[in-house]
Design brief:
The complex is a heterodimer of chains A (161) and B (431). Chain A has 161 residues and is an alpha+beta fold. Chain A folds into two domains: 5-69; 81-158, Alpha-Beta Plaits (2-Layer Sandwich), CATH 3.30.70.1450. Chain A is 17% helix and 35% strand. Chain A has three helices and nine strands. A five-stranded antiparallel β-sheet of chain A has the order 1-2-3-4-5. Chain A is elongated. The termini of chain A are far apart. Chain B is mainly alpha-helical and 431 residues long. Chain B has a single domain (7-381), classed as Na+/H+ antiporter like fold (Up-down Bundle). Chain B has helices spanning 2-27, 33-42, 55-76, 79-110, 114-126, 130-139, 148-173, 178-210, 215-235, 240-250, 253-280, 287-315, 320-329, 335-347, 353-385, 387-392, 412-416, and one strand at 421-422. Chains A and B meet through β1, β3, β4 and β5 of A and α4, α6, α7, α11 and α13 of B. β1 (5-11) of chain A pairs antiparallel with β1 of chain B. Chain A: InterPro entries: AAE_transporter, KhtT, KhtT-like_N, RCK_C, RCK_C_sf. Chain A: It holds the Pfam family TrkA_C. Chain A: This is TrkA-C domain-containing protein. Chain A: GO terms for molecular function: monoatomic cation transmembrane transporter activity.
């Protein structure tokens, strides 16, 4: 099974178009705008030049769609089965967040909300099981696991400015 | 300070009026440019309400508007975009120039306006509106279409051509002789070439110099640099707009991205002021006499743009439907036609040129989105009706033919596309 190949077409002034032809010979493309918006396009079989569907996505919608498209072990909702009652979520730390540059222990996250922070994603790498002396930075994404209420409370804590 | 109060009231009323017009345009799903022009026409010379105190400020604002328009245009493109497009698409650019500039020039000569006005009007009919077209493509859900890169590359070439054309116009309007004019042009071309070269080679360094994490500093540095370069360019008789365009080209990456976001609102404000200013200096009563030539010119150059798009898309191996779509999309003219006409108006050549350009742009900025939408269905309908006749004429590719098949010209599609990149893991996701 060879790697899926995507071709790039520059769209000057707009961004880049990525094209994918599936094994069933259907065409898909994503227009990546430079402002972070994405447009997902599908093509009909009878006019391969024209989009039969063209959906504009905000960065957040794209994130959500990527998560849905990822093979299941990447899915944040992996644990959100009703019988477990646990959810896992990504929570991003803004640059203006209160915790930017502070220690993870200072957030008293586990005491306050009962959630666990299983990993921190920073740029291209992930730091698994960060300890209380781990120093947070703006732009970090925390992978948080806990009850629905706990995760929501954790998000509120992390969003403090 | 009585006069400053009057100024604030006047200028505030203008801006507020523009804002309301912009909202109206948004509701009608139209470009606000024609409404701004009409607002300018309604006031000022021969209009309802001559402006007094804010005249001077509006004039300066208009100049800044042109500079910001061109700067933002330059920011849209990277130098490699321009060079790459120039290498692969120059025939389309030449056809576009020949088909669309000549009708304008011919019309000016027919009206007996002389050669300088002919060159100006050629530019007015030549340059499509990248702003209007990009918006139309997005609205019609055609960003992913196969003919879209063709349309965009023609726009890129036109914008690049502006960098050569504007200095020529500036020299001609200044009444420079052949020797002085050639010197100006040589300087302009040399500077443009140098900037492109520097931007391709050292774009990172330039951007690093400008780049700043603090939006405020970035704004001041980019705006200051742009105005400074524009001023120097003006002094060298190269045209301020071209200087600004080249600054935009030279900035790339993060600096361009940041500057783009910061300057967009400023550009919108001053560009609107510029359109109003242009309208203010056009006497509404001078429009009816030129309405007929403007209409004729609009019809002819809508046709020539459609032909241009059709030809360029065919060259890129797009099927017939896509060719009509590409043609129809290119019809809209807008901000840059007004910029070119504005130069002529402020230089004070042919008095009817401003009104003609105004009427022409008003027509095409409204017709353009419609041709983008309906050219293909209408053309398909007609060709279906005249199927026997169409079969007789050897246009070649059958409708719906796989555009991937080579179409005579040696692999034009490869010129658009890099090598396919294997997509392994999607770690390159940004948050």
């Amino acid at each position: 099974m060879p790697a899926t190949r995507m071709s790039r077409t520059p769209l000057p002034g707009i961004g880049v178009r990525y094209d994918l032809t599936t094994r069933e010979d259907r065409h898909l493309s994503v227009v990546a705008g430079r402002d972070g918006t994405r447009v997902l396009n599908t093509y009909s079989r009878d006019d391969p030049d024209e989009c039969s569907l063209s959906v504009r996505l905000t960065p957040n919608e794209s994130e959500a769609l990527i998560d849905a498209l990822m093979p299941s072990h990447h899915s944040p909702s992996l644990l959100s089965t009703t019988d477990l009652g646990l959810v896992a979520e990504r929570i991003e730390l803004g640059a203006s967040a209160l915790w930017n540059g502070r220690l993870l222990g200072d957030t008293r996250m586990r005491t306050e909300t009962g959630v666990s922070i299983v990993a921190v994603l920073r740029r291209a790498d992930a730091i698994p099981s960060p300890g209380p002396d781990f120093r947070l930075a703006g732009g970090d994404t925390l992978i948080v696991i806990g009850t629905r209420e706990g995760v929501d409370a954790a998000a509120l804590i992390l969003e403090r400015e | 300070m009585h006069s400053s109060a009057v100024f604030l009231i006047e200028f505030g009323a203008i801006i507020l009026g523009l804002g309301l017009l912009g909202r109206l345009a948004g509701r009608l799903k139209f470009s606000p440019i024609p409404l701004y022009l009409l607002a300018g026409l309604a006031f000022g010379e021969g209009g309802l309400l001559p402006l007094g105190a804010s005249e001077e400020f509006v004039a300066i604002g208009a100049e800044i508007g042109v500079i910001l328009l061109l700067l933002m245009l330059g920011l849209e493109y990277t130098a490699s975009d321009l060079v790459g497009n120039l290498k692969t698409q120059y025939p389309a650019g030449l056809v576009d120039g020949a088909l669309n500039a000549l009708p304008g020039a011919a019309m000016a000569l027919l009206l007996g306006w002389g050669p300088v006005a002919a060159v100006v009007l050629a530019g007015v009919t030549w340059i499509s509106s990248s702003g209007v077209i990009a918006k139309v493509l997005g609205d019609l859900g055609r960003l992913g279409n196969r003919e879209t890169p063709v349309v965009l590359s023609i726009l890129v070439l036109e914008d690049l051509a502006m960098a050569v054309y504007l200095p020529i116009i500036t020299a001609l309007l200044a009444g420079a002789g052949l020797a002085a004019g050639s010197l100006t042009l040589a300087i302009a071309l040399g500077v443009a070439g140098l900037v492109l070269f520097l931007a391709v080679r050292y774009g990172r360094l330039i951007s690093r110099f400008v780049s700043s994490d603090d939006p405020e500093k970035l704004l001041l540095v980019v705006l200051g640099l742009t105005l400074l370069v524009a001023g120097v360019a003006q002094q060298l008789q190269v045209s301020a707009a071209v200087g600004a365009f080249l600054v935009g080209i030279a900035l790339s990456g993060e600096a361009a991205e940041g500057a783009h976001n910061l300057l967009s609102p400023l550009r919108d404000l001053f560009a609107a002021v510029f359109f109003v200013f242009f309208g203010l200096h056009t006497d509404p009563s001078s429009i009816p006499p030129v309405l007929l030539p403007a209409l004729a010119l609009a019809v002819v150059t809508a046709g020539t743009k459609i032909a241009t798009g059709y030809w360029a898309a065919r060259r890129a191996g797009i099927s017939v439907k896509g060719r009509w779509r590409a043609g129809g999309t290119l019809v809209a003219r807008g901000e840059f036609s007004i910029v070119i006409a504005g130069l002529a108006v402020s230089a004070g050549i042919e008095p009817s040129l401003g009104p003609l350009a105004t009427a022409y742009v008003l027509l095409l900025v409204i017709i353009g989105p419609l041709t983008a939408r309906y050219t293909e269905p209408i053309a398909s309908l007609l060709t279906r009706r005249f199927r026997p006749a169409a079969a007789a004429s050897a246009t070649g590719a059958a409708t719906g033919a796989d555009a991937g098949a080579a179409v005579g010209t040696p692999g034009p599609r490869e010129s658009f596309e890099d090598q396919p990149t294997p997509v392994g893991d999607a770690t390159s996701r940004h948050s």
